[in-house]
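Before relying on records like the one below, remember that each one covers exactly one chain. Contacts with other chains, cofactors or solvent are not represented anywhere in the record.
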Amino acid sequence: MDQQPFASQTSPSREPAQDSSRPEVRRRHRWVWVVVLVLFGFLFYWAISQHSKTQAAATGGGGRRGMMMGPVPVTPATAQSGSIGVYLDAIGTVTPVYTDAITAQVTGVINAVHYREGQYVKKGDPLIDIDARPYEAQLAQAQGILERDQNLLAEAQMDLERYKQAWAKNAIPRQTLEDQEKVVLQDQGTVKNDEGTVQYDQVQVSYCHIVSPIPGRVGIRLVDPGNLVTANSSTTLVVVTQMQPTTVIFTIGEDSLPQILKHSKGTPLQVQVYDRTQQRLLATGKLTTIDNQIDTTSGTVKLRAEFDNRDGILFANQFVNARLLVNTLTNQTLIPSSAIQHNGTKDFVYLIANDKATMQTVKAGISDNGNTAVQGIKAGDLVANSSFEKLQNGSQISVSKVKLPSSSDAAESDVP
């Protein structure tokens, strides 16, 4: 009886405790979302401000910042009036005029090697000696046979003279005289054959003494004394390469061929060759040959240029960068290529006058040796050649006597 009232009192007291906790949990969730939104807004504001600072730095810091920084120091460059060359660039290979790979023409043992590796030789200098004794013996034998047959011919000729005298006195029949005439002719043929044999054996002996057929440079030694060589084999005994003069063969596109043919008459076109990096000028020569046909697979034509190569800097099979001068433009306005700025397809410079930089649109033309021919300014104009990241149209400048580095010489810059 006493347990029911107690149960009735405890059960209603639990339900109000659970209902009172729900609003507190909802308020906590609401504060969490408020904090998240505040943090997100702060991050968004920070990102926008950083983007604005980046744009301001890219455009020189804005007009007000440029005003506060004062005059911009720049290095000036003066536009000059002059000539500039029109070049065609190509990759070429140094190709000697003559390269002789000498092989043995007789069989024998090498007696001596007279050259040193890398030695410069003249035409006719001895290179290699092959044992010539067997061929000298054959030559002596052929010379002996020749002497015998020559004496037989002389005897037959003397008999012929006697027969002619006897025939004049009717002492012998005519047939005997005619037979002797044919004997003389036979002996003359034999002597001529012997002379050919002697000349052949002399040539064989000369093959035993190998000399340089051209002036040039000898390569690495390929044979040693004591080696046996055979006639008409593919084994190379020595290689001689002509160094002075030498040539460079390079290719150009078929579309450029009419331009070359137009200026190829008269004075030969000038050709310059540079190293792989195109920084060092190796030699200057002249165009000598244009191939007689176009390669159908590549649409290019081969050209050959000749160089004195007095310093021997051009080596056979060396890869070089060739520059063919096809025309020279005169009375051009030239400025340093680094002074030209780009905005898409638009080229411009900063003209300097009255301590102020004024943007001037130009049309860039041919470039060579760091200079570019432009239209839109005249000779004598002063242009900025540094500090482009700080310059704007109308910026106040101060001329610096010391050349200042420029980070946008070869890059595009945006117009503020």
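DSSP finds five helices and 22 strands in the chain.
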